[in-house]
Amino acid sequence: MKNDRLRYLSHRLLAAGLTAVLLHLCLLLFLCAAAKDLGGRWWELAAMGAAGLLLLVCWTTVWIIRPFLRLEKETRLFLEGHAPNGLLREEHVFFTPAGRQTWECLQGLLDSSELMKMNKRQAQYLALQNQINPHFLYNTLESIRSEALIAGLTGLAEMTEALASFFRYTISKVENLVSVEEELQNCETYFKIQQYRFAERLQLTVECDSAEREEIYNCRLPKLSMQPILENSIIHGTECKIGTGHLKIHLERTGKLLLIRISDDGVGMDEQTLARMNGQLQKKVRAAASQDGQTQGGIALRNVNNRIQLLFGEEYGLRVFSMPGVGTDVEILLPAITSDRDVPNKEALRSL
Amino acid sequence: MRNEILRMDQVTYETQGVTQLDNFSLSVWEGEILGLVPVNNWGVEALLSLLTQNLPLRYGYVHYNERLVNDWHSHRRGGNRVSVIRNESCLAKDLTVADNIFVLRPGFKKWHIRPRILREQLTPFIQEVGVPIRADAYIDSLTTFQRFVVELLKAVVAGSRLIVLENADAFISESELAKLQEILLHYAGKGISFLYLSAHFEETLRFCHRTALMSNGRILKCFDLKSGSADILSLPCVGDYDRWIRAHLEEPVREQADRPMLELRALCCGNLQDVDLRVNAGECIVVQDTDGCALSDFLAVLARGQPESGQLLVGGRPLRSGLDRSIAIVQERPTETMLFYSMSYMDNLCFNMDHRFPKIWLSKGIRRSIREEYAPLLGAEVFDRRINELTNRQKYDLVYTRLLLQRPKVVFCIHPFKKAEVSIRSHLWELIERLLERDIAVVILAVNLADSLALADRLVRLRKGAVHEVYRREDFTRLPANTPWLYLYREKYSNMERKVDMYETFRNQ
User: How many CA atoms lie within 13 Å of A100's alpha carbon, on the beta-carbon side?
Assistant: First the structure.
């Protein structure tokens, strides 16, 4: 604390002292130039004075104005809902010791592990909607399946089996990272259940370059990243549409990124709603903290987005593209990692 | 594994406190031709600036060639190897093709320039693109398309991984566009990516692997139309056009008096050869210069008023000079080229009326009555505004209303839809129709038919400076398959199945 104080004071003193010295120097030179008769070397003194003034301007810009503007910008972004992570890492922003402590405290309050727990709770809420004892649910579903098989109702048995698999995947260990293959399987199971309701009105295709299938399927991503989005596409996109709804999951990998695009050709959304939704996804802190639920269907997207950003960083997450009457694309941007050890924020992963 | 050449992620960019790009996300893959259709021009200039330079961002990340080059945390500076090719050529006109491509390239360090070596170096590139361009030809002597190709080659030689083509379809002809498509596909195959900015969604279908729709500085959606996932007519930028043209076709044909307003008799000038043309009062014809070599000569004749041989008659009389008020020319991008920003709205509106009212500048009464007459049409508030305070739409209104007041016999419109936003283009149709309703003959000079054809009563196609083909409206069905909105004409005149044909047209392109 004492060192911080000294460091801050030395920086300020250095900046202020040098500013004062340069200012005095400039004044002195100008006064000399003015005092001398106009012959002799007055122009040299004037030139030196001008150079000193220029130096003073540069010095003030670099050491005082720019850090101030940087701090201003970061504070404004924080007020708009962005995380303050970058600010404390910034070398050229000099806080007073108390100021730094305040920011650190604030960051502690918004600690990613806390947020992760909050999101986990939200995910569980999304998955269950109400508190059902998982074992009771599996056992009951298995009993129904047995009864259906005995009665020769294979359709019902298959449906029950799909439902049981879906619940098992959804309820157990929400926090884990899973492979793309597992997540895709869960999506297909979920889709199978929905197909009992929608029959031919709903079609799902999964697109992936066959040469890269194995690499892509081995990539890791937070559990329940894709299914809530698929669910959104069905409920808010294609369910309201007249005619067959086409859903598509497109997977692609670059050197560093894994891109998953979930598209529907449903009703889409207007430009204002789209802008609002993308705005909420951009602002991590506020989106996580707010529970207003004003945007129907937005909770699932925000939850997935927050979990991805807390684990991998704010440059990853969801991007939404949509047009009314045309459909919606939700793009999931993830780092292409194949092991849980590659997760940048291991603390958030451990805290679950 | 595919490489991403460009990824702009959640970019918010402001200039002077105005948000130009708002949560803008776009990616371009290696070897991809990505179409970008701006519904309005908001943010387009900012996007082009951000592609070439790493300017401070309000928020977001820019990756170029899989490397983070700009982000909101840091203040990186410098540029990216991205080339932008637009109508305004950035080539040095007084230098040769080889000099422009090699000598003006960043990183060229030779002290002694040997033209023979430059020529040899250029030959494989010229052969590759298959466009006859001499290495030692001066840029001034090239056609628009050749200049365009030279810029493209310059970008390729400079090592740009991403090349932006802005509104190419507005200034090169159809046959040249087909050639351009071949060239782009060739270089896309070699891993160079292209961002093809166009105002026409249907044009991007011809070129692009994907097309993104942009509005108010945001990407609304990307379309992979080859997969057939989107109904083209449900897109606002296409659907509005479709509805407008359909409604236009349903309207009764305008009655045209058999009074020739413009007559060209065996007109020769420069590349123009024996052009015979007659345009009646209230008739709209589109003159399409298919190879882009005659348009400048046509304009030169209008400016001089005297052809090398043949006759140019306006209202049955020879044209005296370019200053003759019986003709009017609407330049390209008239809101930039035809308005005087230091003059008042009223002065801009009236300054072509002196042949009708010689005392207009002395008489406040005439100007007051003009104001009262046109206030319902233009809006009462615009008369007190300065020109730079007008919206784009109001500026177009001003230019075309000036023509109404001038009352010429013929109006020549040069690429009238160039650089106009989607919403403005449908308004421009209405403005041109207003001229036609006043029995003014309209000649639209275009190299591309995308917007003009819907207005045309006749289409005259020039090839090598001579009239090659003339189509009446009912003959539009015979136009080549890549003609925009062809399905509507076929539907109207040939009773063909609309939707099947529409998709066939789009897919075949």
Answer: 15
Which of these, B7, B32, B21, B419, lies nearest to B198 by C-alpha position?
B419
Domain B4-247 in CATH 3.30.420.40? The answer is no
B230 → chain A, closest CA residue: A326
CB contact under 8 A, B1 and A319: no
In a shared domain, residues A191 and A286: yes
Size of interface A-B (CB pairs under 8 A): 73
- CB under 8 Å to B460, separation ≥6 — which residues? B277, B285, B286, B287, B288, B467, B469, B470
Kindly give the pairing relationship between strand A220-222 and strand A177-179. Answer: antiparallel
A282 vs B231: CB contact, 8 Å cut-off?
no
Please judge whether B10 and A278 are an interchain contact, meaning their C-beta atoms are less than 8 angstroms apart.
yes
Give Cα separations from B396 to A32, B116, B335, B417 (angstroms). Answer: 62, 50, 6, 11
Put simply, the answer to whether A323 touches B219 (Cβ < 8 Å) is: no
Question: Is the ipTM beyond the 0.90 threshold?
Answer: no
Kindly state whether residues A162 and A49 are assigned to the same domain: no
CA–CA gap between residue B33 and residue B176 (Å, rounded): 18
Whether B4 and A257 lie within 8 Å, measured CB to CB:
yes
Q: In the CATH hierarchy, which fold is given to the domain comprising B248-484?
A: Rossmann fold (3.40.50)
Q: Which domain holds residue A210?
A: 113-350
Tokens of B157: 């030689």
The per-residue pLDDT string of chain B (509 residues; one tens digit each, 9 = 90 and over) reads 788 999 999 999 988 888 899 999 999 999 999 999 888 778 899 999 999 999 888 889 999 988 899 988 776 678 888 999 987 778 888 888 888 888 887 777 778 878 888 888 888 888 888 888 888 888 888 888 888 899 999 999 888 999 999 888 777 777 788 888 899 999 999 999 999 998 877 778 777 889 998 988 999 988 886 655 455 555 656 666 677 777 777 777 666 667 888 888 888 888 888 888 889 888 899 988 877 677 788 888 888 777 888 888 888 888 877 677 888 999 888 888 889 999 999 999 988 888 888 888 888 888 889 999 999 888 888 998 999 889 888 999 999 999 999 999 999 998 888 777 777 887 888 899 889 888 899 999 887 777 788 788 888 988 888 888 888 887 887 776 666 667 777 777 765 444 444 444 544 44
What distance in Å separates the CA atoms of residue A298 and residue A276, rounded to the nearest whole number?
10
- Hey, are the CB atoms on A327 and B221 less than 8 Å from each other? yes
Q: Which residues of B touch A215 (CB under 8 A)?
A: 1
The whole-angstrom separation of Cα B293 and Cα B307 is: 17
If asked whether residues A90 and A184 sit together in one domain, one would say no
In chain A, which residue's Cα lies nearest the Cα of B232? A326
Do A9 and A155 lie in a common domain?
no
Looking at the 3D structure of chain A, how many domains does it have?
Answer: 2
Which chain A positions have a beta carbon within 8 Å of B3's beta carbon? 254-255
> Which two structure tokens, joined as six digits, stand for A30?
């100008």
Q: Give me the residue from B2, B10, B220 closest to A321, CB to CB.
A: B220
Residue A321 has its nearest CB partner, among B2, B72, B221, at B221
> What is the Cα–Cα distance from A77 to A93, expressed in whole angstroms?
15
**pTM score of the predicted model:** 0.72
Closest to B218 (Cβ–Cβ): which among A212, A275, A326? A275
